[in-house]
Amino acid sequence: MSKIIIFWGTGKLGKEVLSFWKQLHIQPDYFCDNASDSWGSRIDGITVLAPEEVYNRRNQVTVFITCSKYAEVERQLSENGIPKDEIVRADGMMASEMYARICGVILPYVAPGFGTVKGSCQCLIDLSCGMVLGGVERWSYSLAETLNKLQIKSAYLMPGNSDRKITDTTAPAIFVENRKGISIIDTIEEILHSGADTIICNFPFEIMISACIIKKSINPKLKVIAVFHNDEEIYYRALSTWEPYIDVCLSISSKIKNTLLSKRFPSYKIKDLYWKIPCDKRVRGFYSPTGEPLKIGYAGRISVKQKRVDLLLEIGEKLRENQVEFCMSVAGAGEYEEELKRQIQERKQGNSIKLYGEISHEQMAQFWEEQDLCISCSEWEGHSISHSEAMAAGAVLVITDTSGADDDVDEGINGFTAKIGDVEALVRHIIYLNQHRELLCKMGTHSKEKIIARNEYMESENYWKSLLE
């Protein structure tokens, strides 16, 4: 890094990134900020410049944006002559662009000889969020089972301080412990020590960044498979940054695939991935008849962020106003759970909305077989496993138009979609199905048929055998 290094942003993010850099015995030459009252001050001994002082050195600087207003600052810098190649996203510790720039600084901290004495693991599975009962994690447990059948020795890789609400023993767990105080270095060493020749990255965090650094600078034969589980910008950013070191990207929805292609991610590296969901080929025999409450199910994280579980209460209110008799079963756990309980009681919806807490993977099929509809108000998804499980049980989808919805719903044939946040449309669809109960079996059967066809395509053992060879 021969150019003058500027951190643009003197707030919390800037100080966090500075602290990390100092652990690596590097630091920026200057800070900069749009706040005029900070100009000329010093942060940990580093002077804060006014923007004009940066513009005047436009051909001599590399600017790391260390504040949350990345797009706004990037535009400001570009308009004032800072070359785009010298603007680096560093708005948090998971900014892939930053690690790509300081890769050469990190490597000397990796212990000499790491990787020469190797473990017996062949394939690592990224569990960056720990052993929780989320869709990604449940998919990972089934993947480990498939690898066992193929006699490929695998292991879960996760942070030592990660959440371990459940314990899956399909594969052994390797924990990245905090030995050196720099998690990215500890992660690189643990990957090397495992002896794995393949790593399946489920998240765009330290494990994926570490794998790509290893492939770039230590072991070019390491196979890096990135699974695109979510339609969030952080995933696209990470894949764009590390594309040369990613062998295969598994896309779980047509929307994600099309977005990757629009961002010029090489098409030959993209492979479709569907969930293989157990599905009884027999037509489901029972749905709630007219005169009985319509059974509506939700299964997933109980949160407002992303899942918008709070909107289930609004849907309940509007159904009640329209004199729709229903029973809504809510399965899952999360930070909004206690507030949801309070709101249900306050709104006197306890007779129609029931909370079941976290349900085990083995119980999900039975849960969905008892529901007529699957409801989702999510603001974003990758491709919901819960929706596929509902389809396999013959439940009719009424969901928001997130990533994966186009793959799951043939509008009016096996379900309905609504724009994100459009509670009125979701309610209209439910009222329609309530008035036309005869459609439930027909639409639910179409859902089951869709899952059966996917399962035939997604023959897991052959799929992974060809991918890992």
Could you please describe the fold and organization of this structure?
The chain has 469 residues and is α/β, with parallel strands linked by helices. It folds into three domains: 4-93, NAD(P)-binding Rossmann-like Domain (Rossmann fold, 3-Layer(aba) Sandwich); 123-273, Rossmann fold (3-Layer(aba) Sandwich), CATH 3.40.50; 294-455, Rossmann fold (3-Layer(aba) Sandwich). Helices cover 38% and strands 18% of the residues. The chain contains 18 helices and 19 strands. The chain has helices spanning 12-23, 51-55, 70-79, 96-101, 103-106, 135-149, 183-194, 206-217, 233-242, 254-262, 310-321, 337-346, 364-369, 385-392, 405-408, 423-435, 438-457, 460-468; strands at 4-8, 30-32, 42-43, 46-49, 61-65, 87-89, 123-126, 154-159, 173-176, 198-201, 223-228, 248-251, 270-272, 294-299, 326-331, 353-357, 373-376, 396-400, 415-418. The strands form three sheets. A seven-stranded parallel sheet has the order 9-8-7-10-11-12-13, with helices on both faces. Helix 9 (233-242) links the parallel strand 11 (223-228) and strand 12 (248-251).
Describe how the helices and strands are arranged.
Blueprint: E1 4-8, H1 12-23, E2 30-32, E3 42-43, E4 46-49, H2 51-55, E5 61-65, H3 70-79, E6 87-89, H4 96-101, H5 103-106, E7 123-126, H6 135-149, E8 154-159, E9 173-176, H7 183-194, E10 198-201, H8 206-217, E11 223-228, H9 233-242, E12 248-251, H10 254-262, E13 270-272, E14 294-299, H11 310-321, E15 326-331, H12 337-346, E16 353-357, H13 364-369, E17 373-376, H14 385-392, E18 396-400, H15 405-408, E19 415-418, H16 423-435, H17 438-457, H18 460-468
Parallel strand pairs: 1-2, 1-5, 2-4, 5-6, 7-8, 7-10, 8-9, 10-11, 11-12, 12-13, 14-15, 14-17, 15-16, 17-18, 18-19
Antiparallel strand pairs: 3-4
Helix pairs in contact: 7-8, 11-16
